[in-house]
Amino acid sequence: MMRFLIAILALVSFAPTAQAADWWEASTDHFVVYSDTSGQAAQDLAVKLERFDEAMRFMLGVAADTTATPRSGKLTVYQFGETADIGRLSGSAGVAGFFIPRAGQSVAFVPSRDDRRATPGTRNERGGLTPQIVLFHEYAHYFMFQHAAAAYPAWYREGFAEVYGTMELLPNGFRLGAPAAHRASVLQHLNAYHVRRLLDPPEQMTGEDGAQIYALGWMLSHYLTFSGQREGQLATYLREINQGATSLEAAQRAFGDLDALNNDLNTYRRGRTPLKEVTYSNYAAPTATVRKLGPDEQAMMAMHIVSTRGVDEAKARALVPDARALVQRFPQSVPVLLAATEAEFDAKNLDQAAALANSVLAIEANNPRAQLYLGRIALERAKTTPAAFAEARRAFAAANRADPANPDPLYHYYLTHVLAGETPPDPALVALETAYDHAPFDSSIRETLAHLLLTEGRDQEAITVLNPIINNPHAGKRAKEIRELVTKLKAGDRAPALAELAPKMPGAEDQEDDD
What we know:
By secondary structure, this protein is an alpha+beta fold. Helix content is 57%, strand content 7%. The protein contains 23 helices and nine strands. The chain has a six-stranded mixed sheet with strand order 4-5-3-2-1-9, sandwiched between helices. The chain has a three-stranded antiparallel sheet with strand order 6-7-8, with helices on one face. Helix 13 (313-329) runs antiparallel to helix 14 (334-346). The relative contact order is 0.11.
């Protein structure tokens, strides 16, 4: 179902680490942290993340939530093992942490302790790219697209996250704007790299181009935000981009002479980095609810982490024996039954997955995850049995009633109509638009909404919806494909976009950020 880059050997070597420890859960308004350290450590990380969210809201003028965030709307963070364990889980040695934005289940993975023995060449050694910086950086991306979804060029998307990634939390406030020390080696070469190239990158970028998106992107974002010079120019630049201008056109209109901008940046780099410090009066830090996981949840955590990270069908089969053994040990445990449901579903054991989901509903009649899995199972069956679309629709509707703010069942409810070859009724159209409102960071939902807009003849709106994917430096090949579709669309050739963006049966790879 999902991409999985870990070899079987790595999977096996990871499991004992996760199983040996006691696990704790700490929950705040916007985060759930699972940690293999201690209740205090879990609480500290959850509160730190909540404070980071609080600081970003303050800086960007985002109001506090007026209603409680449901569990499906919270970022779940798994803190365990060493950096090497995180690297094995991600499939890339040296990764200090990574983040996967998903509608209804956004997750992040970070180590709970430093490696006992330093690994030469790891990102953690290369200039201090710590797990906290990675986590703050990635949450900044999530926050940006959750609260201000728009087209952001690659340099600003990464520069913005770099600026916020180095935030320092103070006892009664925060300090923003600290140098990105982990980019120092790249910043040394700025004299030989012109800002024009950052603002108008070549089609075939070099490794230096990729590095400067982060390094010079940080410098330009920092300069336009904190220097006090060029007031209003960044807002003008972003507005021009979102009105259809290219990055270079927008830069020339907003910044003027780019040689002068380049000289100003070099002067700024050599000066003292300005910081913004915010102190709250009568500050009360957020609180977290902490509990130690029960024996059933402790036992399933290794399997659950691997499955949550994402597995394909073949690798999922390796999890099934453990899943079935856990069900035998804990037949009335809803967390175990749900984890086993996921393992069986990923392995395409649909009958077993359905039986487990129904077992959950026998214990908790309105469990939204069980209903969601019954809907997904029915969608799989609909590939050969079209009558199953109606069954899937009923299950997704039930999941929505149980968890109205979860974008996943809303999105899948819409799919049950389109994939069945039907014209979606108004409730399905509203469901897709609501799913997008809840999860604008999810590219599958974004592409599906763009397709709907195209079918309604709203081409310019569809292009606006697609622009964030085009400008996403982590979208890789897909960004190029979407860019080419939009180019044809602007030229009047609508057929390629309508065909390529048409919803398909679920099974696409996850989005992931690990920088």
